[in-house]
Amino acid sequence: MQKIRWGVLSTAHIGRTQVIPAIGRADNAEILAIASRTSKVHAAAQELNIPRAYESYEELLDDPEIDAVYIPLPNHLHKEWVIRSAKKGKHVLCEKPFALSEAETEEMVAACLEHGVKFMEAFMYQLHPQHARVKEIVASGEIGEIKLVKSSHSFYLQNRSSDIRMDQAMGGGSIYDVGCYAIQAIRYLTDAEPVEVVAQGEIDPVTGIDLTGIVHMKMSNGVHALFDCSFEMISRNEYELVGTGGTIKVPFAFRPDINDNTGIILVQKEREVREEKVQGDIYRLEIENFSNAILMDSSPAITADATIKNMRVIDACYESLRTGQKIDVETKN
Q1: CA distances, 217 to each of 11, 221, 317 (Å)
Q2: Which of 48, 64, 171, 178 is 20 to 30 A off residue 150, Cα-Cα?
Q3: How many other β-carbons are positioned within 10 Å of the β-carbon of residue 209?
Q4: Is the pLDDT of residue 331 over 80?
Q5: How confident is the model at residue 297 (pLDDT cuts 50, 70, 90)?
Q6: First and final CA of the chain: distance in angstroms?
Q7: Do residues 137 and 241 lie in contact, with contact meaning Cβ atoms separated by under 8 Å?
Q8: 224 beta partners
Q9: How far is CA 160 from the centre of its chain?
Q10: Is the peptide bond before 97 cis (omega within 30 degrees of 0)?
Q11: Confidence (pLDDT) at 333
């Protein structure tokens, strides 16, 4: 089987611990190179058995044998390096959030389209088959008509003084970091877009970033949605759909990998609860899906349209948080 040859821009923790090992597990991918702006890249390459190590991102992008790059850089650097990668003809898998605004996202998407490269926002969770199963259950009518969707994604952030997620200039904040998952999941599960957004939260008085966001969204199909995200709460990564005849709860929605790759679906009707378990290696599935899109010239699981629309909602959340007002979200295509 033909394999996509990958390079990774930076020695970020998520790349070293999750994505690079997943490239090794994938059937249609192999890791060829890693780059950093310091000499520590050589130790990382040796530790992870990566053949090539570069002390600059530019050198890696100049390697003609690399087909695709994974970008886990800080949020404020996504735009620059997605565009630079596209100009070098490299397909791009970029960590979420793809950018810091809808306008940035559109510019990045345009660059990728201009240079004929595939690109995808790294919402690895959506590749887990538990979510397709949830949509099957909803479509079956088992829990009736969906009226409300709720989602929570949080963790208690340690060592705040040195964490880039506390730096506003680098794209820090809980909505950017974990709220983006809830927004994406709600849009996916309802097959609808938010038309109204009201956000409240807790703003760090020193850095100005949102430590906590609590958001109400009214969807274009009339469903109401609530989500919370935080750096100040216990770890949660879940969603719930409330229908006229029952509920569906998914307690490991965004990180089934911490539950041995097992997704759990709890379907409740009155006093009856049914549990379903669904297996899936989210990071491997992400790499295989994107590599296959390159090999087959097909669309990856997370489309450009979905990425742009998600950033539009993130923009609205931050505007509401800043102004204290309800924001009407333009539902343009």
Answers
A1: 37, 11, 9
A2: 171
A3: 24
A4: no
A5: very high
A6: 37
A7: no
A8: 148, 218
A9: 22
A10: yes
A11: 47
**Tokens standing for 329?**
């979200």
For the beta carbon of residue 222, count every other beta carbon within 10 angstroms.
12
Query: What domains lie within the chain, and their CATH numbers?
Result: 4-124 (3.40.50.720), 125-281+311-328 (3.30.360.10)
The tokens describing 104, both together, are: 């940035």
> Whole-number mean pLDDT of the chain?
97
Its pTM stands at 0.96
| DSSP classification of residue 95 | P
Give the whole-number percent of the chain exceeding pLDDT 70: 99
CB burial of residue 103 (10 Å; 0-12, 13-18, 19+):
middle
Residues across the chain = 333
Residue 315 pLDDT > 60: yes
Tokens for 294, please give them. Answer: 């390159």
Q: Which two tokens stand for residue 27?
A: 């059937």
Which residues make beta-bridge pairs with 238?
A: 152
The alpha-carbon radius of gyration of the chain (Å, integer) is 20
